[in-house]
Amino acid sequence: MKATGFLVLALLLALASAHECATKPPAVRTTKGNTVTVLSIDGGGIRGIIPGTILAFLESKLQELDGPDARVADYFDVISGTSTGGLVTAMLAAPDKDNKPLFAASDVNKFYFEHGPKIFPQDNASATGPKYDGKYLRSIIRELLGNMTTNRTLTDVIIPTFDIKLLQPIIFSTSDARVKFSKNALLADVCISTSAAPTILPAHYFETTYEDGTTRSFNLIDGGVAANNPTQVALTQIFNEILKGNFEFIDIKPMDTTKMLVLSLGTGAAKLEAKYNASMVAQWSPINWIFDKGATPLIDVYSASSADMVDIQVSSLFQSLGAEKNYLPDIATTTNMEALADIGNKLLEKSVARVNIDTGAFEPVVGEGTNSDALTRFAKLLSDERKIRIAN
To answer: Residue limits of the PNPLA domain (predicted)?
Structure first.
């Protein structure tokens, strides 16, 4: 579940007017709203603590507005997550026995603090196979999710994986699971698969069946090799559903981002570290690309490019619509779990920043306040939209 890239706290609010957002679980959604709402969570292993901290803050603001039972999953039409982001997605969107979210956002970090040291045991790393055997991670995911299938999530989820046998991305989603029998995999299998980062955790094999009873096989690794930042995957899926006439939550035309509200949370380390340069890598052998002074340059390149290309493309799209003031990213580094929680809290107090699509640098934006200010405004938008849908 390791990945390198930006820590992005991005609120993509391209709104035609002051409409906002939230939803009921699919079974009770009976009215249309004004805005499509999307939550996207990057991959990043134990760095999932950072978006966990941000989401806990957002949920606390929603509870101030709508009461103590408010949960993040109630406010988003789609939650998309890769690797550790896929695990957080499942925590937020999977139902418990009372058909409420399995985890409150405030419980996400408790999960990482309790189970992180056992998932990534520092005194038991392998020198021959994947760094960690993944046994504890698989057992705790299966214990939490049991036989729950992907079609049962409280709101639509989108979780990328990559099939190492077919050499192609496999995207699991609630909407696909409802219409394609073979894509209605156990949510536990999907989470284990999207977390299986090469060199870190073992690949995951499982089977489903087609409608006629024949077997479909999956040989999956971390979705981060294809989409560490799953924002664009989520937007593409939504636009596809709109084109098919299946998107029921609001009236929207394809590519109409003026009716979209997107919160994209990153987990990566600062990328502008200038660790490498052309003269250095021009002399590298294949071994150097795999391992150089404790780093893994090739994995750094692939994971950073996967996340940043999405960031640049989505940012460019929203900037072209005059919504650049609503894109709010920032950057962080990591050390350990306690430091990660502190990073998340400090991130909330940092000034809003926006990506420069030419250089990739994040530049502070004067006059837009801190990220906590932005999230507080975002919570109000979500709460207002929810009220609109309930009232209608």
So the answer is: 39-235
Q: Exposure pattern of 28-41 as b/e (b: 16+ CB <10 Å)?
A: eeeeebbbbbbbbb
Looking at residue 90, its pLDDT comes to 96
User: According to the per-residue pLDDT averaged within each range, which of 11-15, 124-128, 370-374, 382-386 is highest?
Assistant: 382-386
- What's the whole-number mean pLDDT along residues 43-67? 90
CA–CA separation, 79 and 111 (whole Å) = 19
> Can you give the pLDDT at residue 88?
95
For residue 113 the two structure tokens come to 């603090």
Segment (H or E) for 386: helix 371-391
Nearest to 98 by CA among 71, 76, 64, 60: 71
Whole-prediction pTM value?
Answer: 0.80
Instruction: Please state whether 247 falls in left (phi above 0), alpha (psi between -120 and 50) or beta.
Output: beta
Token duo for residue 60: 């606390």
CA distance 44 to 223: 11
Tokens 């969570």, located at residue: 41
Give the β-pairing of 156-163 and 362-364.
Answer: unpaired
**pLDDT at residue 23 is higher than 50:** no
User: Phi and psi (nearest 5°) for 8?
Assistant: -115, 120
Which positions are catalytic?
Answer: 83, 222
